[in-house]
Amino acid sequence: MVRAAVLPAVGSPLEITEIDLPEPGPGQVRVRLTAAGVCHSDLSLTNGTMRVPVPAVLGHEGAGTVVSVGEGVTHVAPGDGVVLNWAPACGKCHACSLGEVWLCADALTGAGSVYAHRCDDGSDLHPGLNVAAFAEETVVAANCVLRAPEGVPLTDAALLGCAVLTGYGAVHHSARVREGETVAVFGVGGVGLATLQAARIAGASKIIAVDVSPEKEALARKAGATDYVVASETTAREIRGLTGKQGVDVAVECVGRAVTIRTAWESTRRGGRTTVVGIGGKDQQVTFNALELFHFGRTLSGCVYGNSDPAKDLPVLAEHIRAGRLDLSALVTEHIALDGIPAAFDNMVAGKGGRALVVF
């Protein structure tokens, strides 16, 4: 039996309870969690913005140690440190055949499986976004674990599973920020802080952080922001004022709200790139007129999981960490236990802090 945070139904509060976790079967791995990040996507699962089968154990950003492996698993062994990969690529679908593994059609099929049961009533449990990291231990498909980079503590490595891959990828894979370009990052949460660091690593000349909270300025500047703007109706105008009235070369939206996406677009120079990382609901409608699309010549693109290939990107990120260019601790503003997750969700809604990290 292990303790886990269970979402009984969409719209219901999380329940910290004991679950019965079976031993790994063929092609599976059992992992003892060291840490798990509390991501906005987990909140989106609780309120129905994103849908997965429930009841479910949430949590998709984590790292830990292999406890045991099932038949046929050879790339990891008991005792190995691993990073969880919540969106494993099948390697067979059309997107995978194009090398766009972040768009794999079958990446989330595991979320529909029954992987454990509640101890109190025996009811079936699904593994949230495949990996069920909000638990002391989990059992996942073998392709959901990647060897943790050497020299990176597992507590820090947990952040590589979503926030850092997403933020780094948004800058280096989606927006393709070049040295000397100007960048604006909307939303200074865990992903936004990773995006700011990635922009600094890319050599951006000016990095403007935007958030509704004035209290996040110190966090943003520590991550690499050269300027800070408190979000308001004049945000786009302020950003143009900071960039010679041109707007930034690249705007990265990490919030997922229509008004923020629209503001990021308006803050981008003619011919610039606007990348949307935030996950918004179907009710968040963004509108553009045909003339402005022609006149501004901007590129607007979505960005899934940073357009990353975790197997290829983790070694690159590890090198940045070891060289001191990427500071994972700068993303974390709170260390909590499992029962602290609901309060971490409340802080997200209120726009407080960066990443909350569950430490087991």
Features:
360 residues, alpha/beta, seven-stranded mixed sheet, six-stranded parallel sheet, 11 helices, 18 strands, globular
Summarize it.
By secondary structure, this protein is an alpha/beta fold.
- Whole-number mean pLDDT: 96
What profile does the largest beta sheet have?
7 strands, mixed
- Return the structural class: alpha/beta
First CA to last CA: what distance? 15 Å
What value does the Rg take, in angstroms?
20 Å
3D architecture notes:
This protein is of the alpha/beta class and 360 residues long. 26% of the residues lie in helices and 26% in strands. The protein has eleven helices and 18 strands. The longest helix has 13 residues, at 190-202. The protein is globular.
